[in-house]
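re: ur question from yesterday

yeah so i grabbed the chain u mentioned. its 184 aa long if i counted rite. heres the sequnce exactly as i have it in my notes:
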Amino acid sequence: MNRTAFVLIGYLFFTACAQVREPQGGPKDTEPPRLVQAVPANGSTHFSGGRIVLRFDERVKLDRVRDKLLVSPPLAAQPDVQVFKGMEVVVGLMAPLEDSTTYTFNLGEAVLDLSEGNPAAGLTYVVSTGAYVDSLTMRGQVIEARSGLPAADVPVILQVARDTGDMRTTAPTYFTRTKADGSF
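ran it thru and got these structure tokens back, copy pasting raw so excuse formatting
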């Protein structure tokens, strides 16, 4: 074998080995990624850190996290969300949190498993900067007026009412999105 062929085979061998991908074959993965640990723990109080780490039971990827992540109450700056070590999602807080406030990070379907893209639907993380987690809840359902059918993925806001123009001029105090059945 001549030297050129040997170099070409060596090059192909080393470049093919550098690719990171899921193993092929086997049964289709139908299970979404499952949150196995959060640091700090979900529901923690007296939080003062600058990041949140969410660990999953399998390798994950992010899909349109800027569009799907809802933080309530809203933050002054959008968090930086990245996958770290394949199985961790790190939420870097880019703005200080208010004192004695409970924050809800609703990741929606932004976290997917790497192999099949199954979403971790309904993924929500809660943390408080105060001594307790505010447990006030409001429930309801949004129905589309024309069709009478439940409205999915519609923003629902809760805002301090100062005047009727507040809804257009200031950010909401709390907000969420409706589920597939229109509930929130």
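noticed a couple things. The chain has a mean pLDDT of 86. also The longest strand covers residues 102-108.
anyway ttyl
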